[in-house]
Every structure is written in C-alpha cells, then in structure tokens.
C-alpha cells in the first residue's frame, strides 16, 4: 500500500492519526487520474479531460505509450525523514523552505542515499518499467534521469567557502550530491570486508548507515577490520546456525517475557540474577581522533566532558573513519552513556521452546516496562541461559548538530616557477663548496617546489624539494661598486621585491650572518655577495638598503664596476637550499626542470634550464693588505692571507688554512708588460 497511489491523507489531522483514504475513481474506473504516483497508468491510457468534473467523451491527442518519460529533477534532501516529502528543503532565504513531515531537522545522508537507491533500483527493474510497443523502449528512460542536485562549484570549497558563496550553510541538509555521491552503505562496506577476510556465509541485511570513508593502512585480520566500524555504528557480530550475522545493538527483535516463563536454575537463588558492577573510572574528557568529512579529510579531534570529573585527565581514542563532527560527538556520547547504563546485567533461564530469542534481541519483562535488556550471550543445555545487559534507547539518539563549515583555502592552479641558480661561494662554512644555491618563487605561490635534473635531457631525477618561497627582487637604479668588506654607511640602493619582506638587524645579528644577499645576473652567472643592516620600506614591496658590506666571500673580484637597474636581488639568509653536486661535476652542463612538487617533471608547467656550476666555493680568497719594503738589494712584498673556511675566529693566532697547501703566485709587471713570475709558500716574496 502506497501513499499517493493506493491512499492519501485528507487532512493533517488524518496524517497524525494515520487515517487513510483510498484513491478510487468510482464513476469511470480510471483510478490513475487521481493517483499522482501512478506514472504507469498515465502513460498507458488515453486521456479524457475532466472539465468541471465532467469526463469528456473525446480523448486528448495523447497516444498511449508513444513517448518515454524523463525525470528532469529527482532528488531528496539529506535530512531526517526526507523521503516523506522529497521536495522540501531548509533555506532561511526561501519562501519554499520547510521540513518534511515529522522531521527533526537533523542531517541524514543515509536517507538521501536510500531514497535514490530505492527509486533508481525500482525503475531499473524491467518488471516495473514496461516497454512500449510503439518505440520499443522503456516507459522511464533511465538514461535521462537527472538527479537534483549536482553543483558545478568544487567540493569541498563549496559549501565551506562562505566568503564566496553565501548558501553554503544550506548544504548540510540540502539536496546536494557533491561529497555524498561516493558514500557507501554500511552493508556494502561490511560485506566487502567479509569477502576480504575470506568469509562467505554472512548476513549484513540488518545494518544501516553511511560510510563516508574508511582508511585501511594495511589489511589486518577480519576482526581488526570490523572493530572500528562496530564502534562507530554500534553493531555486534554473532553466529547463528553457522552464519555470521551482523546485528545492530538496538536492531534486534523485542521479546516481552512473563516471569512465569522463566525456568528455575538450581544453581541460582532467584529466577533472575542481577549484577551491578562498580562505576567505571572515566576520564574527565574523552577525545576522539578521526578524519573530518566535508573538509580536506585531515585528522581532527572532537571531545566531550564528563560532568563532575577531573577535567585534566583526557582519554584519547582513534577511529580511521571519515565523520562529521556531529557524528563524532554522537559516538562519544553514546560510548559514555553505554558504559554508564551497561553496568547492570542479568542472567536467567528459559525453556528450549524459547529458542527464538537470540543474541542481539531485546528483552522486556511485562512486570517492569521501564527497563530494557539486550541479549549478549546464550548458553544452550537442558534450558537456555540468557545473559543480558541493561540498555537505554536514548543513548542511541543523534547528537544536536554542530556547525560543520570549515573555511577552505581557495584552489590555486599550478603556475610556472621562477628558478634562480645563485653560483656564489659558501655563505656558511658548512655549506657545499661545489654547489650553487637555488632560489624559487611563483605568482601566486602554490607550495613546495621540486627540482629535477638530468645529465642528458632524459631520465629526470628529483634532487631537491624546496618548501619555502625565496625573497627575490630587482634593483631600481644603477650604482657603482664600493670598497669590499667595509661597512658602507652611504645612501645604499633601492630594491623592489616580488614577495616577502626585508627587516633591519643589529650589528650582532650581522656578525652571525643575517641579511646576506646576492646581487647579480643569472644569465652571465656573475654575482656579488653583500650584507645589509638597514632595510627601510619606501613603498609597496620597495626598500632602501643601507649600512652595506660589499663584495663579500671573494665576489669583489668578479663584480662589474656598475650594477645596472634591474639586477637580480636574492636574499640568502633563510637557510638557502643547495644542489647536491660533486667537485667532478664542475663546468658540466646539466638540464634542470623546476616546478610545483605536486606535478611531475614532464608537466608543461615546469621550467627547463641548462646550468653548469663553477664551484665557486672551492676558489681561494685573494690576499689582502699588500705591502712592499725596499732594501738595498731587493724589494720585499708581503700580504695577509684570507681563509674561506672558519676564518672569522678570534680565538687563535692564525686562521685555518682551508686548502690542500699554501701557495701564492707573484707576477711582476713593467709598463703593463709581464716580466717575472715567482711562486712562494709563504705570505711574502723578495724580488731582486
């Protein structure tokens, strides 16, 4: 018997009282005229209009079975009892907003799934979907059934990005399939896990629920697979007549027993033996870690507090299941309530004639309707020994809904990355002397960047993963080279950044290596290392840098006399990343592909470039403080050695050598012509 086909409710009062009125057409026996769900009758018969209640003798132009029927809008809200009125929905801005009959307004994805499964399954059955003898097709063209609604907006940014779309709050109980279409029924998931465990004889027909996601890091035993689902969806696994049966903890049959039916067990003092265990030690707070639904599926926790308990003590649990926060809270509250109510258990005996009572069934004694018990164990012998625990239906009710919207990061498509290979000497003493630094940026920045390399343009291998965006910019005006190593307290120069920021530092911070930067030309691979102490913001992304040390790390020997406007600026004091190159790879050109780490090196978004390192970190630094002394017979030239490794120490009388040997070449020029070359192993040379 079906509403809208066999009967209807004449009023809301009749609906409340379940008084049903049959749908009949007594005058002409065309019942389908009044049955708003009788699609088959409408499609199969001629149509006679009823004008002012009078049936017209001449039918309309409709030819029975002449055309297939399309469902252009089929759907149901994901709300409690949504199938009572599939067209109803909640939207505070709509005049059509309203709850389905008797709905409690809670979200119910299973309701939506069950409705669509029932309707689509019904019309997929050829017995329910007759074939036309005119066009040879089915009455309902199942290839043209359109489900309401699939939203073109990307999930989960819709519904969560409420800053973009203000109707995101309607998603929770709305008609949307986004994020729900891939849900599996609990029956399907448990059946699949049984098959994975090699179990064939099982019954999952009594399970109900929606599994949004279930994370299997490995394939353990069947029990371990099912345990998280059992905890979340409150079902037990029992064996009946050689079959494994999955029974909801409140889904068993209810048996009302009279005390007269009980058998007196000689081992018991009373027909019913009641036990009450001590109150369990429950933590002040119970927390559940799970994977959050309708978001980015990242782990999240929900917790509930136990009244009158030590809130400092937290009991942590974890389920590898995708849930909403409301479902997680509902699970926790059920655990706590069940542990409280389940302290009471009973044991009694029944005659063998009561074998219909099995594990999972519910027991109520007619003398005490206030208490309900669930059978947990049955022992068969001369009689049945029943072990049952006290249950409370209210512990299985849904928790009040929680506002689920989680603001999502807006989707940013992958964009090309700007890679800059900064081939300069070591910034820190423990850096690789044979490898250049790699700076990367993009607009917008989309996350980690991968650097792939190949020696011949094929078989690219990943060599770097750079997680941070580099601070890269360009100089705004030309400036000339300054004296190296000494702090220049002049006006400095101006730079414009693509992203990031620069800050001023103290002299102590400068001494330990902060605010190191490189100015140069990536094409010619000419760079100058500098350090600045003052950074003054003079405009959007524009800074004036001053208190600068120029030509550091020996780069004063290759810098040009003038840096033109537009020279590249790279900040090097944020743990710059280096390639892992060996000394024998110096001057060997390699092909690099640089792009978003989420993509592969063959993706067109990757930037390809050829580069050969000069291994400038291996180059000894030039001597300084050159002096000459003329004697009667010769000219003595002396100098001070510089070291490239740990040469800034003040605790020794000399700095580490840092090279395989100490050796200098002295060339003598006369009128710009080379006249003498001498090699010495000490920092002085006598020229006769």
- Can you count the beta strands? 41
Structural category: mainly beta
**For the largest beta sheet, what order do the strands appear in spatially?**
12-18-19-20-17-13
Distance between the termini: 123 Å
**Into which percent range does the helicity of residues fall?**
10-25%
How many structural domains in the coordinates?
A: 5
How much of the polypeptide forms β-strand, as a percent range?
25-35%
Mean pLDDT: 89
Q: Number of helix segments?
A: 8
What is the makeup of the main sheet?
A: 6 strands, mixed
Radius of gyration: 41 Å
Low-pLDDT segments: none
- Dominant shape: elongated
Describe this structure in words.
The structure is a single chain. By secondary structure, the protein is mostly beta strands. The protein folds into 5 domains: 7-170, no CATH class; 184-248, Phage tail protein beta-alpha-beta fold; 254-396, no CATH class; 418-617, no CATH class; 624-687, no CATH class. The strands form 13 sheets. Strands 12-18-19-20-17-13 form a 6-stranded mixed beta sheet, with no helix packed on it. It has a 6-stranded antiparallel β-barrel with strand order 25-28-31-30-29-33. It starts with 6 loop residues before the first strand and ends with a strand. The mean pLDDT is 89.
């Amino acid at each position: 018997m079906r509403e809208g086909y066999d009967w209807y409710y004449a009023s809301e009062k009749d609906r409340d009282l379940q008084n049903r009125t049959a749908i009949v057409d007594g005058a002409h026996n065309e019942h389908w005229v009044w049955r708003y769900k009788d699609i088959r009758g409408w499609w199969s018969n001629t149509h006679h209009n009823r004008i002012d209640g009078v049936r017209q003798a001449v039918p309309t132009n409709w030819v029975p079975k002449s055309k297939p029927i399309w469902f252009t809008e089929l759907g149901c809200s994901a709300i409690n009892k949504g199938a009572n009125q599939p067209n109803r929905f909640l939207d505070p801005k709509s005049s059509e907003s309203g709850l389905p009959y008797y709905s409690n307004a809670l979200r119910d994805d299973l309701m939506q799934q069950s409705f669509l499964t029932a309707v689509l399954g019904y019309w997929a059955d050829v017995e329910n979907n007759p074939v036309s003898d005119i066009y040879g097709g089915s009455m309902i063209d199942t290839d043209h059934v359109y489900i309401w609604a699939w939203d073109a907006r990307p999930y989960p940014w819709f519904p969560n990005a409420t800053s973009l779309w203000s109707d995101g709050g309607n998603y929770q109980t709305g008609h949307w399939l986004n994020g729900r279409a891939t849900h599996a029924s609990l029956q399907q998931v448990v059946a699949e896990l049984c098959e994975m465990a090699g179990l064939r004889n099982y019954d999952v027909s009594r399970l109900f629920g929606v599994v949004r996601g279930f994370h299997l890091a490995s394939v353990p035993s069947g029990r371990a697979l099912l345990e998280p689902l059992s905890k979340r969806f409150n079902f037990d696994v029992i064996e009946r007549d050689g079959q494994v049966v999955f029974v909801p903890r409140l889904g068993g049959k209810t048996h009302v027993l009279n005390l007269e039916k009980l058998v007196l067990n000689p081992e018991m003092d009373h027909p019913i033996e009641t036990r009450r265990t001590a109150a369990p030690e429950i933590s002040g707070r119970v927390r559940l870690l799970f994977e959050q639904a309708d978001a980015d599926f990242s782990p999240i926790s929900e917790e509930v507090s136990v009244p009158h308990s030590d809130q400092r003590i937290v009991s942590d649990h974890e389920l590898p299941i995708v849930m909403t926060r409301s479902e997680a809270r509902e699970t926790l509250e059920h655990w706590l309530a069940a542990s409280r109510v389940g302290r009471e258990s009973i044991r009694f005996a029944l005659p063998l004639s009561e074998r219909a009572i099995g594990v999972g069934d519910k027991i109520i004694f007619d003398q005490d309707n206030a208490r309900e018990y669930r059978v947990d164990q049955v022992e068969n012998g001369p009689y049945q020994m029943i072990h049952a625990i006290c249950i409370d239906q209210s512990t299985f009710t849904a928790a009040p809904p929680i506002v689920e919207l989680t603001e999502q990061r807006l989707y940013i498509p992958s964009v090309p990355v700007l890679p800059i290979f900064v081939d300069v000497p070591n910034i820190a003493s423990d850096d690789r002397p044979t490898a250049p630094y790699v700076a990367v940026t993009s607009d917008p920045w989309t996350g980690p960047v991968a650097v792939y390399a190949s020696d011949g343009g094929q078989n690219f291998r990943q060599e770097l993963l750079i997680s941070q965006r580099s601070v890269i910019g360009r100089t705004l005006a030309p400036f000339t080279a300054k004296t190296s190593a000494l702090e220049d307290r002049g006006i400095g120069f101006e730079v414009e950044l693509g992203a990031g920021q620069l800050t001023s530092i103290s002299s102590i911070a400068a001494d330990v290596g902060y605010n190191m930067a490189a100015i140069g030309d990536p094409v010619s691979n000419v760079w100058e290392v500098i350090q600045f102490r003052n950074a003054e913001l003079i405009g959007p992304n524009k800074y004036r840098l001053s208190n600068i040390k120029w030509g550091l790390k020996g780069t004063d020997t290759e810098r040009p006399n003038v840096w033109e406007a537009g020279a590249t600026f790279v900040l090097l004091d944020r743990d710059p990343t280096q390639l892992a190159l060996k000394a024998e790879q110096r001057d060997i050109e390699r092909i690099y592909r640089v792009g978003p780490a989420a993509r592969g090196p063959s993706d067109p978004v990757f930037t390809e470039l050829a580069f050969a390192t000069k291994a400038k970190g291996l180059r000894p630094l030039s001597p300084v403080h050159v002096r000459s002394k003329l004697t009667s017979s010769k000219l003595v030239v002396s100098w001070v050695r510089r070291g490239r490794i740990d040469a800034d120490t003040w605790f020794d009388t000399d700095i580490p050598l840092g090279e395989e040997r100490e050796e200098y070449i002295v060339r003598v020029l006369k009128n710009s012509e080379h006249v003498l070359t001498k090699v010495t192993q000490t920092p002085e040379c006598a020229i006769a």
